[in-house]
User: Fold these one by one.
Assistant:
Number 1:
Amino acid sequence: MNRLTSAPDLHADANVPVYTLSIYLAAPGTVVKHPGQPDHRSVAGHAYYSISNGTKTVGYGFSPIETGIRGPGQIVLDEQKFYQNPTYTRTLEISEQQYRTLKGYGEAGRRGNETYFDLNYNGVSNSCIDFVWTGLNRAGLHAQMNLPLPNDPHTLVPLQNFDGTLKVLDNKDMIRSIPAPYPDSPYNSESSRPLPKDRDWKQKLLTDNEVPTTIPRADADQTLADTSLPSSPQRHAPEPRQHFRTGDPDLDRLAAALLADNDRAISQTAALIANSPQMQAVEQWGREQFTSQQQQELQQQELSRQRQTPAMRI
């Protein structure tokens, strides 16, 4: 059967499998329910995906083995069952080949095979977001960006190596930009839910476009108050600890957290810095520079293509 026919004809034969992909964005503060474990809330939010062949659904996500912002990671199965009411979900009908690609990608990671994805978790550069986008790109499901060309101001071009944005919910627009393989399929859908209630200030810091008006810095300070390097038996009394000072309170907190290798304190202090007005301005500048560079490169590619295309003779 031709899989490019219109949606009504596409599923006329009930014996033809329908393959679907669902992409999930769970906001910070989302309730997580794992069997046999106490319920808890996601601190930074989570991105993951599931695939179905019409009879069986399996999901894949990436997370650190031990809670923290870096360390050995693992592929976790069926997280769509555990994360309650994710803030955003998009479901697409996909081809059998795309289904097999996404399944092979997830299963390779489960076996510890790093051919397609590095299993060392880093909350900034190799997180659950990177895992999802790497899989999508392998399956040919690319985010798109508008490239205003002189002859077509609404040209959309695929970003074949896009690996996501730092905050989970900031990826929503790029996920929405992915062209549906079967645009008329009745299996295509989107759903959005309200942000989780009763989030703490750390979870609000990591939520898109929501920064608390007051941040209880005492929480971060208390985390570091008793933080010190572990002492070992010494014949002589240890020298007084030298504190690194920059003159900036936030940087001093971060330096102390790094010195103590305290992942929790590093996460909290980095969140404070990341959401400061100065860093927000730097982020905006970086996004503008990236967009400008992408547009210039794509315009050059389009001009090169036009030069290489022979002129049509009349």
Number 2:
Amino acid sequence: MIILALTSKTRSPGQIYDEVSNLVQQKIAQVPGVGDVELGGGSLPAVRVELNPFALSRYGVSMEDVRAALQASNANRPKGAIEGNGQRFQIYSGGNTATGGLKAADYQGLVVAWRNGAAIRLSDVAEVVDGVENTNTLGLFNGSPAVVVLVTRQPGANVIETVDGVRALLPELQAQLPQDVQLQVASDATQSIRASLREIELTLLISIALVVLVVSAFLRSACHGDTGGGHRGIAARHLWRDVPDGLQPEQPEPDGAHGGHRLCGGRRDCGAGKHQPAH
């Protein structure tokens, strides 16, 4: 439906993901019509340990020794509890270092084994670096690494209204993000839908205008036709008056004797044609 991109010139995708993942997901998921919000192109920060098999063989350290040492130093065990007012809170400790065991520097000096009275540290048999949990994901926006936010709508929701709601939330999200993190729209699936709707609206307007013009032209032509017919009737009456009496068609004339009508040839002496008794 809509894809957002989080970029930064000073932070890695893992740092961006860790900083804004909860904020962005929770805020966008509350927009009416949004069904799911997924983050891609990044992952949570993690410390990655790349073992060197030749160093392990040289010092006589197995991979199980390294795993056991890491697990023991990074155990997340409860340190106690606080109870009161019907509630109980468990206390956990994230590590004995300032960063709580979240940085590679916290593990480089970790002792993984002892050989001949000498300590074998993790940095002697492995490369310890800061990284992310999943290194097989990559997000790019305009050629720069980015965390991609995929927003999908709920079934039956209006896609345009949902996208408008997400876009209206972007200024508020940007204000809550770190200043060096930029939130931008990477893709909007409603652009083609909006273009189609604009074309439909324009077509309807043109159709309505054409219908109005055609009806107006028809009504005007009908009015002119009625006026012309009246003029033709007046001209015909004038022509009738100008025709000589002998050429005018026969007209019915009342018969005084019988109260009916008879036809005469248009002569003025129609009375002469009456039947006279024989002498």
Number 3:
Amino acid sequence: MKLSDNRLPEEYAQEVFTLAARLYAEQTQSYSVDELIDAGTEAKIPPEFMEQAFHEIQLQRIENERKMQKNKGSKPFLIGVAIAIPILAVLAIAGSLLSKNATSNVANNQTASTADVETVAPGASETQIANSNVAGNPFKCEGLNLEGENLRDENFRNADCHNGELANVDLSGVNMENANLSGADLRDANLSGANLRNVNLTEADLTGANLSGTILENANLSKTNLQEANLSNAKFKDTNLAQADLEGAKIDILGAKKNQSNLSNAILPDGTNHP
């Protein structure tokens, strides 16, 4: 019997598609986001699942970069980057074929179709995509320990890093406008020259952080720990520093007040309390 006449079991088909993706990666290693979205649409995967997969890929990439920095010369990471996007696209097409097969075997059974979608999406989350701002989604810190990472190339505009683990990170010069960093651990972080306009840093720990030259217009730093922080040449305007701890910090208090900043009940650099 010819090979084309054989009916392959589902698990075997998945192995074939995965191997095909690896082989195809030798020829093509680049896909646009639109192409992947189209592949997901062909596989009857709702766009929100594709976007979730993109986000999880982004987080996995950062975790792998952190591990690679600790274990230089890690070949598995490089191989993963080489085959990541082709596997995502091919698995999406595989999901389409498997979904059609399930539909033909179980008429009008929407539960089976849903199960097919769920088996494709988690697989995609294990791949890695080099684009740090996939589909324009805001950066999220949930579940990540980013301590000591260089994040200068990430898009932190509108980022959600509530309670993020960001001690000693390098975010110098990064646009972080409208980001939520409330409760984040930013001890000794480098934020020099960053755009922190409208950023929420309520109750964040910025002990020893470098915020020199940052834009702090309309930023909320209330109840923030800024002990020994460097805020020299920071641009204050309507900045909320109420109840912030500024003991030992380098900051132009008069300049901040002149630009309508709120320092009520803050601890000043000399350890005294502002009225």
